Amino acid sequence: MTAVDVVRAHLDHIDAVDARVGAFRVVRREAALAEAHAIDTALTRFALPLAGVPIAVKDNVAVAGEVCTDGSPACRSGPEPRDHPVVARLRKAGAIVVGITRAPELCLYGTTDGPGTVSRNPWDTARSPAGSSGGSAAAVASGSVPLAHGNDGMGSSGCPPRRAGWSR
Q1: This model's pTM is above 0.90
Q2: Is 156 considered catalytic here?
Q3: Do the Cβ atoms of 63 and 83 come closer than 8 Å?
Q4: Which of these is catalytic: 119, 128, 132, 142?
């Protein structure tokens, strides 16, 4: 299979399940397919450990060209000029960012209930996937992506939020 085939299959799955699960704030369909095509045509693709693997990124880490809201409609400052180092490393390994996952407002609450949508546990939608990385957890648990970025919004997990120690 090509990276485009894999990414397209995951995007189709997101289309089928995300209305019920609410894992994603943004799905990067066209951008992800373009990134997958670039992986497929790269001469170095066989040396990339994550070549063509679809991933999701929590909405408190910068993805170039996307708006990072930290789970709050008040934080919309425009598209990010560059990737956070975590995203840059994942992309350097060949991962394809298919979407930005939901986070609670300012990533402070234990329930992922962003504006207009609540992320749900895909195995029991009456329950929350919990935590500030609930959107990422729901994305993986629903089979929408095999890998998703998550962190502790306050930085205690050792994976710093978008602005900690990194300036735009």
Answers
A1: no
A2: yes
A3: yes
A4: 132
